[in-house]
Task: structure prediction
Amino acid sequence: MKRFLLIVLFFLIIKISYGQEIHINSYPNSIIDIGIGVGPNYGIMGFKTVLGYKGTGVMVGAGTISGMFAYEIGLQASAKWLFINIGYGVYGKSTYVTYYYSYEDVISGLIINAGGKINLVKSKKLFLELGIGYGTGGKIESPYGPPRTIDGPSAVLGIGYKIAL
Result:
């Protein structure tokens, strides 16, 4: 009896999974994409908007990192579900700690990210955005020597919505 119930449950799960459609190969004619998330595109933790046809256009992100303002301004190109963007903004923070004080500052520089958008609903307006990239050119000022350049990988995770005007 247990074996029969397990087999029925197994086939029921397969049937339900085939009923779930994940659309990753088309993109509606949107003019504005808005979203919230984490990563440099979203101002570390905040929002992002892309103004342009089908996710290709001007990208602006703003948010916060440890209570400090963070941003990214740049361009994004999309082809169906794939995107790549390049911009200037915040991709990290630095902290100086001395015997008498500590000082925090943001690390800003060139940021390049690429990734994909996975549509979450049949109307293809709600999507999950995943991406990886690289930030470079940021300088950390030091009270004890010359500034250092800090480079490093970046990641993007967000959820967005497409608006057609």
The chain is about 10% helix and 65% strand. The chain has a mean pLDDT of 81. Residues 2-19 form the longest helix (18 residues).
